[in-house]
Amino acid sequence: MIENTALGGGKQWVLVAPPNSRGTCLLLAQAANPEQASRIGNQTGGRVFLFLHTDDFWGDYQAMKARNVRFREEPRQEPYGTVAVFEDLYGNKWDLLQLKNS
User: Fold this and answer.
1) Distances from the Cα of 84 to the Cαs of 48, 51, 101, in angstroms?
2) What's the CA gap between 84 and 9, in Å, rounded?
3) Residue 28: what are its φ and ψ, rounded to 5°?
4) pLDDT tens column, 38-62
5) What is the pLDDT of residues 8-35, one digit of tens each?
């Protein structure tokens, strides 16, 4: 975690990043009302939401499986690299992706 700041009124600014990241980070925000809460897990209409790039697909895949990350499919080879879709805690779909040039 890079930052965790209360903004008042129930709002929180939480910024996270992978270890040793040089610029990649995510800003996490909690739903502030029922309309926002109704979108949790479906912000993208069921499509993949984010891409987690790796230079060690199989090592990261096995480590995530060992931590009970739910993969929606078996890993597959695509022209651009190795990929598998997984879900975060709220049902958002991510690609674990190693590009061929990595």
Assistant:
1) 11, 10, 17
2) 39
3) -105, 135
4) 888 777 778 898 899 999 999 999 9
5) 887 888 988 888 887 778 888 888 889 9
